[in-house]
Recover the amino acids of this structure.
């Protein structure tokens, strides 16, 4: 379970360009939820995801993982937690162009001291499940946008995280790929993963089990189905 | 200055320790002052700063702890270069005031450095780095001693010259001193040895008992405080002449030089006698909340076990040496 209590993030505090990106957000996401975070551009979706994934420190408020307050953990311990529990999918994929598809997928395993042969084996296993078997040795530039997004998802899944955070995963892909991403999220949800997606995509929003709507950083609607 | 690889290494180590130690003082005082008042975001900024400061202090203290055996090793290597010196005593007499002060500091300061390193270990195991402020405060308090320690080392190695010195024979073999061994002869020595062995056994038992009974901790510390000077006197007045089989010669440096197998005894006993004080330090400064309390308890347990074990080993080493003499 992921819970936030009056979560607030203010950038450039005390300066002229101060921005309250997230204001007093309290939500409760159960294990196995496909939680949707939606709202117009600049409403704080990405910041909220960063806070939930412990990539950013809140200005005020707390984040809980299974009743354990984790937002005040030290950097080193948050990194340990992220490495073990959280997988990230970014809108812009954030793949490393100089590496092949499987090398990108296996990157999180580098931090776990897995040897190269084992990394490749595990990466191919995940890529097979996502229909990327034939693209294993391709460079990033040789992949279509849809394939790049699937590689990014494979990278998020390779450590078998409990929580997957996806920031507008279908914003940069075509309709066909968006549908396959949604299908994949449904499979992961069935497998008991907690998925938190920021999106405008009505198809993904329809499948959500929890919906958080943000406007100018504030939570204007939170509902569960 | 006598320039050898080892003296240059000691100069470099001390210079590095002073430079790094001074570098860490600014962030340390900032973190110490602001930690309690800081909100979550500000504390995160201080925490990021503390990683560098902690690493620097870690390196500095690790250097200083390692510098202790290196110091004696370096000084020992200078014995043939100082006319008149036959052991460390003679080398120390080349720069007497500095060297004899440094000898005392070499026993005391590493206990503080080791204490900081143990606290840092507890802090790293805590999920919220709760001890950061304590660590920085402790560092600020120890900092002047660290600088003094390094400067004394620098002064010693820069001022060491091959001057003619008197060595241990002229210093300690002449004239009776008011200690049991010389006043009461063999009986006095036996009494002193008995006291040393008795206290060592009592210390070992008390230290192991601390694992189960917190009330015994102060007994362990009291015995440690008594055993430390007793050990120095017993080594000088009984163990050295008996093991070296030279009834009139009492120089412990000669013992360590001529019977190097007694060096582990010195190291093990130093560690064992430090443990109760490290345990006191962690108990006072290593607990800020429930989480750190659990970790600190584990660390303290390790200190009691290793303290008892090293005391046992040290005692065994010395008993084996005595047995070999009498066999």
């Amino acid at each position: 379970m992921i819970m936030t209590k009056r979560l607030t993030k203010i950038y450039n505090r005390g300066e002229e360009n101060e921005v309250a990106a997230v204001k007093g957000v309290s939500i409760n996401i159960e294990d196995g939820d496909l939680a949707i975070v939606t709202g117009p551009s600049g409403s704080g979706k990405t910041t909220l995801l960063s806070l939930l994934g412990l990539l950013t420190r809140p200005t005020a408020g707390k984040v809980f993982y299974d009743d354990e307050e984790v937002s005040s953990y030290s950097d080193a311990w948050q990194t340990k937690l992220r490495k073990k529990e959280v997988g990230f999918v970014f809108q812009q994929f954030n793949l490393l162009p100089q590496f092949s598809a499987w090398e990108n997928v296996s990157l999180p395993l580098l931090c776990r001291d897995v040897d190269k042969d084992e990394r490749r084996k595990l990466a191919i296993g995940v890529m097979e499940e996502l229909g990327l078997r034939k693209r294993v040795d391709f460079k990033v530039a040789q992949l279509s946008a849809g394939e790049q997004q699937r590689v990014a998802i494979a990278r998020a899944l390779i450590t078998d995280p409990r929580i997957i955070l996806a920031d507008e995963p279908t914003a940069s892909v075509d309709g066909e790929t968006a549908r396959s991403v949604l299908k994949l999220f449904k499979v992961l949800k069935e497998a008991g993963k907690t998925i938190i997606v920021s999106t405008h995509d009505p198809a993904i929003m329809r499948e959500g089990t929890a919906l958080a709507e943000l406007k100018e950083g504030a939570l204007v609607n939170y509902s569960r189905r | 200055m006598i320039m050898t690889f080892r003296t240059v290494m000691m100069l470099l180590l001390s210079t590095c320790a002073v430079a790094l130690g001074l570098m860490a003082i600014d962030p340390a005082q900032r973190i110490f002052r602001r930690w309690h008042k800081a909100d979550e975001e500000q504390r995160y900024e201080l925490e990021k700063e503390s990683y560098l400061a902690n690493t620097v202090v870690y390196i500095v203290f690790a250097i200083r702890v390692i510098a202790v055996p290196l110091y004696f090793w370096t000084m020992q290597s200078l014995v043939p270069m100082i006319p008149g010196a036959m052991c460390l005593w003679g080398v120390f007499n080349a720069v007497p005031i500095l060297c004899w002060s440094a000898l005392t500091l070499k026993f005391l300061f590493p206990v503080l450095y080791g204490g900081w390193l143990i606290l840092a270990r507890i802090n790293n195991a805590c999920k919220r780095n709760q001890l950061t402020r304590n660590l920085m405060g402790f560092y600020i308090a120890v900092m002047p001693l660290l600088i003094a320690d390094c400067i004394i080392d620098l002064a010693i190695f820069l001022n060491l010259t091959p001057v003619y010195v008197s060595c241990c024979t002229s210093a300690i073999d002449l004239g009776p001193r008011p200690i049991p061994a010389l006043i009461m002869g063999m009986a006095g020595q036996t009494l002193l040895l008995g006291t040393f062995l008795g206290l060592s056994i009592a210390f070992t038992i008390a230290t192991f008992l601390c694992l189960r009974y917190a009330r015994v901790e102060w007994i362990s510390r009291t015995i440690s405080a008594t055993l430390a000077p007793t050990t120095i006197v017993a080594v000088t007045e009984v163990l050295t002449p008996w093991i070296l089989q030279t009834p009139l010669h009492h120089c412990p440096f000669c013992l360590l030089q001529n019977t190097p197998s007694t060096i582990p005894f010195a190291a093990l006993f130093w560690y064992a006698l430090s443990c109760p004080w490290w345990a006191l330090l962690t108990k006072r400064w290593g607990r800020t909340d429930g989480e750190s309390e659990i970790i600190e308890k584990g660390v303290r347990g390790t200190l009691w076990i290793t303290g008892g074990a090293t005391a046992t080993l040290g005692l065994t080493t010395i008993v084996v040496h005595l047995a070999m003499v009498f066999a």
Observations:
- Chain A is about 35% helix and 25% strand.
- Residues 175-190 of chain A form the longest helix (16 residues).
- Chain A has a mean pLDDT of 91.
- The interface with chain B takes residues 13, 57-60, 71-77 of chain A (CB under 8 Å).
